[in-house]
Amino acid sequence: MLLSGGNPQIPKGDGDAPVQAYLAAMPGWKQHAGRRLDALVERNVPDVNKAVRWNSPFYGRAGQGWFLSFHCMTRYIKVAFFRGMSLDPVPPVESKDKDTRYFHIHEGEDFDEALLAHWIRQAAALPGWKP
């Protein structure tokens, strides 16, 4: 089932299985982009912890909290870096939260994997967000 904006409705769960269920339920072009993001995180943070919270995949490190999440919007995927203000360069999209920054992926745009990998490695090395 898809929620508003085409975001998959996936039950809360820990581990890779709920994240893979989310990726499989992503609509259209977003599924390919989501799988690329997931693989990019795995390649750059081999000890990553995964979960689905609030109908979104979350990525973190044991004992450090969450460093990244993403969510399907109507026309793009919103990638959240919870300590984005500490990244260099700072991701381009502001948040209401003073620490969080976003990167948006739009249909037809080939996102810069090298830049995302750079942000992912930096974010994973910082203390993460703990709800």
Automatic annotation (TrEMBL):
The keyword Transcription does not apply. Residues 31-123 form the YdhG-like domain. One of its GO terms (molecular function) is kinase activity. Pfam families: DUF1801. It comes from the Bacteria. Keywords: Kinase, Transferase. This is Histidine kinase. It comes from Cupriavidus nantongensis. The lineage of its organism: Bacteria, Pseudomonadati, Pseudomonadota, Betaproteobacteria, Burkholderiales.
